[in-house]
Amino acid sequence: MDNEGTPNVAMKKANLTPKAIIYKKFGDKAVYKVEELEESTQDGCPRLARAQKRPPLFRCILQLPEFSVVSETCKRKKDAEQSAAEIALHKLGIHPSMNNPTVQDPWDELVARVSYLFSNEFLPTLNPLSGHFRAVLRREGDLNGSVPISVIASCDSKINNLCKSINPKAESDPLLLTSLIMMNASRLPKSVYASKDQLWVCRKDPYPTEIVQPLITQEESISVQAMHIPYSQEKTVAPLTLKFSSNGYYLDVIAQYLGVTNASRVLLSRTIGKASSEMRFYFAIPEPSMLDSSMDFLNMNEVSNSKGTFNSRASYISGQIISGDAILASVGYMWRSADLFHEDVTPCTYYRLIISKIPGGIFKLSREAVLTSELPLGFITRTNWRGLYPREILCAFCRNHRLSEPVFCTKSNSPFETSQSDKTTVAESALSASGGRSVPIEIKFRCEVKLFSRCQDLILECSPKQFYKRQNDAIQNAALTVLSCLNTSLKDSYMPLNLVDVRFNYENFVKVFSLCRSIHESWAMDLNCRNQIFKIEGPELGSSPCNGSLVCIRYFVYLVIEGGDAKECLESCDEFEFEIGNGAVLPHLEACVIQMFVDQTASFSMELPSKEWILAAAVDSAKILSLLSSKSEGHCLEYNLSLLRIVEPLEERMEQALFSPPLSKQRLEYALQHIKKSDATSLVDFGCGSGSLLQSILDYPTSLEKIAGVDISQKSLNRAAKVLHTKLSSNSDAIMPSANLKSVLLYEGSITVFDSRMCAFDIGTCLEVIEHMEEDQACLFGDIVLSSFRPKILIVSTPNYEYNVILQRSNPSSHEDDPDEKTQSESCKFRNHDHKFEWTRKQFSHWALELAKRHNYSVEFGGVGGSAELEPGFASQIAVFRRGIQSQVDDCPMNIGLSHCYEVIWEWGCSNSVSSSLW
Q1: Buried b (16+ CB within 10 A) or exposed e, 741-761
Q2: What are the pLDDT digits (tens) for 411-440?
Q3: Which of 141, 557, 648, 810 has the highest local Cβ count within 10 Å?
Q4: Where are the alpha helices (DSSP H) in 298-431?
């Protein structure tokens, strides 16, 4: 193949950076010295008691033989070096655009690089490619000293980059890499010989004996565990043992397993996993005719698919085009070592590589909890988050799919600031002119995210409308929104889901993620925990979890064989922390934990997920494979857990630190006193949660005959049902304080939705609930209850925002607290991260009076914690609505039809002292 035969492919011009041009001209005589600058940290804020931490800045001094230059101030060391080089070029009168290589230069550099690789100087060096050069000297016969071209193409980063600059498609096609080197075979120097037919390169003259003799050492015979990946997805991925002899070349052994004559017929993918790894795919090269330049670089994907040998599983993991059967092995030569590196690749390794391609899988692996954890629903505080942060997960996802780094752009509501890049620190406060005087503005942030392919094609953009008080919260929540959308699109439905805040470019999405559906569509895991039976043991004493609690459990997950005769532990953790109510674990697990008390143990079973999840979790893959091979419907997973400790939400900690009994107990006592005085026979608790009020009613003598609870959280209702069932059952043979009670019901549904069964209750309660809704929803709730349900009495409590400054001042500090959380407390923010609003006394009074006026109710105000006579009033403010006299007979308006929107979760009747449930 002569020089004129070099194909006229579309080549990317290899523009040299200013620093590279300086190196070409001065070599090692150019010396860069980077220094970190120390800036005053109190500019603009001279009275700060604590210095503010700011990103470091750098400046570079470039010393050349004739002069030196100083760079501009930069945020990165690399940028400072390039700035200094650019200033030096300008001083030398050199323009980078006029001194960059021509389009043909990469071909020349490719030839020069191959020539250097076969020089006497390269052989003794310790790097991944020189190890191959030394190993082939142990090959016998005609192959002695011949290096497979595929090895040169894959193991030398400089050649790899040159090939990509010639044709960008080479990045995803190992065959194309090999072809580009072969195209220049005729241009190689006379000292190097390339065999186009045999696909190897060697020196014509042997290396000097004094160089070779110290380098040729006897290696030990080794056995390495690998994975065989058939190209047909109908065939199962299986473990494989590779046996390498002491006097051979390991690639020749892999070639035999692939069914080809020698290592020259084997292609290598790029390395997979961590940077120091030598794990990669090995697969047989196609027929020699496919290297013919007359094919004009046909897309290997199309060629492989046309022949039916495209290996979708290996291609999906590597991000390159792989055809035919492949072997996944971790073996090769490393930097600074002459020995052959090797480590086992097990089914666990393989399946973890696959789950690392989806956001939820990356989170599971970061927590080392494949069968337990789930990608959380929201980022609330750094204190309660465990595992990789959403932004880190998104960056890892982009790297795993070889996308460009995600672009984050934060925006604030400051009048002086429209948008900034993520790397810029946004001011903490701003002032705006109002009425001739400066008024402080509460700065809030939101963040936009964009994902691009390597070719800078837009894949998706996320533009949330919600603002956050902290910049980091805005970034993390925007990243989590993107991750959740990708997780659903790739794992469940594959089709990109265009949501309010997220927009996909469908064409680019399919181009990048075309293989995801075929790989993940069979990966099933049952996340529906309805009708789940939990076996909980131990004393029901001490504290129990609630939404926002950080719990710590010990757990074990077992694979149970049919009949329970044998079981194998798949996954375990002595101390596993997660936040209740944020979806950070399997629904089954959270539903179980929320019904437990500290020091209790529990167990439950669930259907077997697809074997891929099991093998990704199992350490002893061989044993698990043998157990799974006996297919049986009786196999299942068994979870055993213990609740070790609970850290209450910040709101609970603040209240407990200041009030005795705690504020929550005082609210219950306030409601119970009104219930006893009312002589009511029926009560409904709106937003009953885990049933704390309903449980308390059972301990007091009242006139109530029927009580009910409504909540939107099935998990909380399950806990309420369990505790109520236990309490009612234990009192069945004893004298109950509330002996008149005949019926208890729990409903699942939204309290802003009408259900005719809620009519005709004498009294309604809603304690610390409305602040968890948006304000318009809180107003809607008030209107529905007083206009449609029309209880005789309605008791509503909500936090007094004005009291927060006292509560937060009393919060016991801890070295584990999130600094942002402390800042939030110091600034008198809401008591709970889930609160959508908190009203002052004036705001609450206005809402209650207007509501009462519209629906012919009177209202009186009270509260608990604090005093009405002293500022700032009660910690919890309470409104008691009473129905007007003229409406006493109108228990349920006649124009209201039957509507059963709520679902009965659990019910109890005293006629036969039994309960039934769906939990």
Answers
A1: beebbbbbbbbbebbbbbbeb
A2: 887 655 544 444 333 333 433 434 444 445
A3: 557
A4: 300-307, 312-318, 347-355, 359-367, 390-400
What are the start-end ranges of the H helices in 855-895? none
How far is residue 102's CA from residue 96's CA, in Å, rounded to a whole number? 13
pLDDT number for residue 175? 87
- The Cα 611–Cα 613 span in angstroms is 5
Give the predicted TM-score (pTM) of the model: 0.73
Name the β-bridge partners of 601.
Answer: 537, 642
What type of residue is 58? F
Predicted local confidence at residue 452, as pLDDT = 92
| 8 A C-beta contact, residue 545 and residue 580 | yes
How far is 400 from 515, CA to CA, in rounded Å?
14
At 886 the pLDDT is 58
> β-strands 57-63, 238-244: how paired?
unpaired
Whether the CB-CB separation of 99 and 209 falls below 8 Å is answered with no
What is the average pLDDT value for the chain, to the nearest integer?
82
Whether 536 contacts 596, CB under 8 Å = yes
The token pair at 607 is 């259907």
Provide the b/e sequence for 228-243 (b: ≥16 CB within 10 Å): bbbbeeeeebebbebe
Tokens representing residue 850 in the block: 């207007």
Cite the DSSP H helix spans in 335-452.
347-355, 359-367, 390-400
Convert the pLDDT of each residue in 671-680 to its tens digit. Answer: 999 999 998 9
Please answer whether residues 148 and 264 qualify as being in contact, where contact means their C-beta atoms are separated by less than 8 angstroms: yes
Judged against a pLDDT cut of 70, whether residue 400 lies above it is answered with yes
Q: What's the Cα-to-Cα distance from 798 to each of 305, 548, 845, rounded to whole Å? A: 64, 18, 11
Separation of alpha carbons 678 and 791, rounded Å: 12
